[in-house]
Specification:
Layout lengths: L1 H15 L4 H18 L1 H14 L5 H20 L1 H6 L2 H7 E5 L3 H4 L4 E4 L6 H10 L5 E5 L5 H11 L6 E4 L5 H8 L3 E4 L10 E6 L2 E6 L1 H9 L2 E9 L6 E5 L12 H18 L23
Parallel strand pairs: 1-9, 2-5, 2-8, 3-4, 3-5
Antiparallel strand pairs: 6-7, 8-9
Helix pairs in contact: 1-9, 2-4, 3-4
Amino acid sequence: MKNLLARLLLGVLWLVHWLPLGAQAAVGRGIGRLLFALAGSRRRVALRNVELCLPELDAQAREALVREHFQWLGRSLLERGLLWWAPAERLKRLIHVEGDIGLAERSDRPVMWLVPHFVALDVAGASTQLFQRKQVASIYQAQSNPVFDAAIRKGRLRYNQGQVFSRHETALPLVRAVKRGHVFFNLPDMDFGTKDAAFVPFFGVPAATLLAPARMARSLGMVVQPVLAELLPGGQGYRVRFLPPWDDFPGDADDEAASARMNRWIADEVRRNPAQYLWVHRRFKTRPAGEPSLY
């Protein structure tokens, strides 16, 4: 039954992707309003995250921000169909790339794209396949439903014969891919527990933060280039910004200090576009020994 429902939902996404983007955006925001009302546990997580990260906001402002976030989230979910099935020519018209996307093609050193979890994350992934030729490697969190899992994997690799590796594998296959010339599309800001992580401040709150970005950049001599993606209002499309590289990352800093620098940068970018950050993720799920849950 779950697989049948998944196929039905994918069928709806396929049908909707033919609509003009402005119509999809309106429907997606409506879905987001419905999710805000119905998805109580995720709404509470988002409100708590905003309370922890942006304590200067009062309760009314926090709720307004989370309501807006759910509308962007609804759009991002609905518009996956566009990313998975629309012709490349249509996507190239809708995705506005800024900055040096060609850095990885020219670099004589391995490149890591540092891509925080804003709701347009998959648009960033599509842009790396549509506008440059280097193969891409990334870490993938497998979905519990096999139908959705297959659709997501196929959609994310539709234009580029790169590789995605399970988060439960060792890092060795990923390292080998990077050494073969793949660009590492790295998602650095999720809580995956204490393994290979340290408690590093994020908005001043200790957060389990993977040390892999600093360790890989140091051990493989990588150039780290931050990448940010956002949904634009209505039918205006998407913006993906390839920022100037951090040639000095991690530099002389130890892994924790370098990770703290990374978290500060992510926090600064969240403040610039707070409604589109993925607040529904339990970023502070793992706590230092002896500390109570923040949720």
